[in-house]
Amino acid sequence: MEFLWPTALPLVILGPAFLGFYVWQQRRRRKYFLTYSNLAAIKALTRSPAAWRRYLPPALYALAFTALALGVARPQWLISIPVKQVTVMLVIDVSRSMEATDIAPNRLAAAKAAAKSLVEELPPDARVGVVSFSDSASVLVPPTTDRELVNQAIDNLRTMSATAIGDGIMAALSVLPGGDAQGGSADGRGRAQPAPRRDSNATSSPVATIVLLSDGANNRGIHPIDAATQAQQRNVRVYTIGVGSREGGILFYGNQFLRVFLDERTLQQIAEITGGQYFFAPTAKDLSAIYQNLGSTIGWEKQRTEVTFAFVAAGLALALAAGFISATWFGQPL
Hints:
CATH architecture of the largest domain: 3-Layer(aba) Sandwich
CATH superfamily of the largest domain: von Willebrand factor, type A domain
Number of strands: 11
CATH topology of the largest domain: Rossmann fold
Number of helices: 11
Strand content: 15-25%
Order of helices and strands: EHHHHEEHEEHHEHEEEHEHEH
Radius of gyration: 32 Å
């Protein structure tokens, strides 16, 4: 919580000071009463229910003073509000190594569950698309607000061979604003040609983010760094997630056991180039937490909102409650 007028915060001490003064005054009166009263009167006082009730109204008044003092300081809260026109592309590795079982039940199943949890956390009007990549990349669902269609595409993911991380990024870029005609191309060696930079005076495109998950090293298609450069030029942020153990996962393929390794350095570079962030997920729990955190961050922004009215209203309500209780129980405001 922040305050627009922090110089008013010392007024908060008025509440505790009032309550402390009241308690001191009551004890002083009680001491005087015990000194000059007879035994029967003292016994009647200790049996009186008003003995403990006497302190309730002052306590409420003290809280009221505190709330009003905080209101004078004009408090502000940070709240999350959805960003308009958010587009998120889920780019998921479906290479054969995603069948490794170092993450139960296997990497792909854990990735599916985590991706669906991210979709649930996004703002309701966020547009979400799905791209899968193995030896090539495919746009399964272009950006849409149809959550059922997105979840169905995620459920239908199946593993194939090879890993083309760069192609996955380029496929996602192709369906984002400015992706088709301005999307650049690849030369005969599989390297991306630069896309035209956006005119700084042109109308800005909707916010676009790519969330890329992979468990291996690129071995097909456009180089991932070239694809990341394309994303950076189009102002698209890429968050990358490396899934699996750093020691490598065991995969049974072609009648033999293979150990598959994660290329963390490339994923880190992709995130650095585009202004995103790299996450490492060695377990299904970590993977789910990462996706949920991204879902509650992407498409939301923090905004300061003044809540002076709430504190003033609470202070007045407490003061009215204190006055009502005091008048009802003791026949006087305090």
